[in-house]
Design brief:
Strand content: 25-35%
Number of helices: 13
CATH superfamily of the largest domain: Medium-chain alcohol dehydrogenases, catalytic domain
Distance between the termini: 15 Å
Shape: globular
Oligomer: single chain
Number of domains: 2
Length: about 350
């Protein structure tokens, strides 16, 4: 089968590999339709020294977002309805189910979390616990966003959002634009999106953002004081991956507000954050990351989100290197690789 693999710094190549086969009762073989290009993979694409410490134990090196069709399944998976022809998407990381965290219902903190086969392959085999069945109303292109939907749901949960909260989202990224919709669904009073690119701000506006700010030409602090009546934002989601925004975000928080961030920023980088700012406000700094436990909620909500506007470019497998380069610019909310359309 054909597969896209990382061949070196800033170089993806198309290779031939043996087709994977099911081995266990819970295994599901999938003919991949589309694979997503996630910004979290960019440090590996660039071969950044500080990110290589994570290694492939944390990230598959050629895609972790996908949609596709079941072609074959083990006996247990068949009993749960993963029959040939079923349209699926899922979560690339498999939790062990045995460590203290898994047994406490915190699979996202699993001590033995492992990535499954990279999704930029014509066929993959994943465990049924990693999969959801797709509603007929959700296209293969939209279904690739299963992973960031779960991630965003986890962010909303971690931030403990309340009805009437004022919310600021830094970054018109896919998680940022999904968080925008979830915040609206959860009764946010005001939702503001900050992004330097006009295309991303237009998408945010179409999805219901009350305000969209260009940080390169507008004063975020002045805007915050004006629209929140000098109170600041109750919740700020930082999804841009820009380290300097953490410091700015802390200054824009309301008292007892929550600054939730979903980026790594580099293992060896220190955020320019003043703890005194958080202390005086009694504000919280909360990370959100893995979210395998969100799959059931993702399956229920995926058909209620507007996802098509987030898919801005689609490339062939032969064009994978260009797809990664375009993702690296931050100009496009989400880019897909067409595997078996």
């Amino acid at each position: 089968m054909k597969a896209v693999r990382l061949a070196g710094a800033r170089k993806m190549e198309l290779v031939e590999e043996p087709e994977p086969q099911i081995c266990g009762s819970g295994d599901v073989k999938i003919r991949v339709a589309y694979s997503g290009v996630c910004p979290d993979e960019m440090p590996f694409f660039r071969r950044d020294a500080d990110m290589l410490a994570w290694g492939s134990v944390i990230f598959p090196l050629a895609g972790h977002e996908m949609s596709g069709t079941v072609t074959e399944a083990g006996d247990a998976a068949l009993k749960y309805g993963f029959t040939p022809g079923t349209r699926v998407s899922g979560y690339a990381w498999k939790h062990c189910g045995q460590c203290d965290y898994c047994r406490s219902g915190k699979e996202n903190l699993c001590m033995h979390l492992k990535p499954s086969q990279s999704t930029m392959s014509e066929y993959i085999v994943w465990d049924m616990s990693q999969l959801i069945k797709l509603p007929d109303t959700v296209s293969f292109e939209e279904a690739v966003l299963t992973d960031p939907i779960g991630f965003s749901l986890h962010g909303i949960t971690r931030a403990n959002m309340q009805l009437g909260d004022n919310v600021l989202i830094i970054g018109g990224t896919v998680p940022g634009l999904i968080l925008l919709q979830l915040a609206k669904m959860n009764g946010a009073n005001i939702v503001t999106v900050v992004d330097p690119y006009l295309t991303n701000r237009k998408i945010a506006q179409e999805l219901g953002a009350d305000y969209c700010i260009d940080p390169t030409s507008e004063n975020i602090a002045f805007h915050t004081l004006k629209v929140t009546h000098n109170l600041g934002y109750n919740i700020i989601f930082e999804t841009s991956g820009m380290l300097d925004m953490i410091s700015i975000a802390a200054m824009l928080l309301a008292k007892q507000g929550v600054l939730a961030y979903g980026c790594v920023y580099g293992l060896n980088k220190q955020p320019p954050l003043k703890l005194s700012e958080l202390f005086i406000k009694e504000a919280s700094l909360i990370p959100f990351h893995m979210a395998p436990y969100m799959l059931p909620r993702t399956e229920k909500i995926i058909g209620k989100l507007s996802l098509s506007p987030l898919i801005t470019k689609i490339y062939s497998m032969e064009e994978a290197t260009q797809a990664y380069m375009d993702c690296e610019t931050g100009r496009y909310p989400h880019i897909l690789i067409r595997i078996n359309p």
